[in-house]
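Lab notebook page, bench 4
Experiment: in silico fold of construct C2
Operator: M.H.
Input chain length: 214 residues
Purpose: comparison with the prior construct
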Amino acid sequence: MKPESIVLAVAGIFLGVLVGWVIGSQQATMPRLAPAAAVQEAAGQPAAASGTAPAAAPARQLDEAQVQALQNLARQNATDVQSRVQLGNLYFDAERYQDAVSWYDQALKLSPKDVNVSTDLGVAYYQLNQADRALEQFEYSLRVDPKHAKTLLNQGIVRAFGKQDLKGAAVSWQKLLEVAPSSVEAATAKRALENLKANHPNVGGSPSGNAPGS
């Protein structure tokens, strides 16, 4: 995510790399955005004095040959989910988010219970500054899997920075601590809640002692 696309909810709130990145499904064959370990490590670093988000990694160069090969597969097989997911990932990493939305949407129509694709679609909407559509997509993901850690983490991020809804963000992150306390996402959510509560005590949210790093 490019820093200029971020809306900081409140000056003084600090969520480290969460300001700069929304986390995708991080499939093993196609690393997405920031690696989870990097997110966890950076969550403890102070925010820049200017209040801007940390610089994201540069967009990947689009491999046109790979794109063409995958598009051929998709055309040849109208039910091939994986080629469409891979195309979505390639376009996402190249920061061509509208193209990513198109391919993720096609994949999800073929595999409507794929929560990772649904959440990546929501992330792509957010990258297009469509926070409401992103949140709608995350709600769909949570109907499929109410305990999906990355969806809950992303939902909180978009609520905080896309909608300036700090209370809603706290609810999402607290829910994450309850349903997936041992996940990397829970460790990040715990730090986010701690910093949120320190800067805005009235917002609420009580970080659980069961999360990693407690």
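Observations: Residues 3-59+115-199 form a domain with the Serine Threonine Protein Phosphatase 5, Tetratricopeptide repeat fold (CATH 1.25.40.10). Residues 1-22, 26-55, 208-214 have pLDDT under 50 and may be disordered.
Next step: discuss at group meeting.
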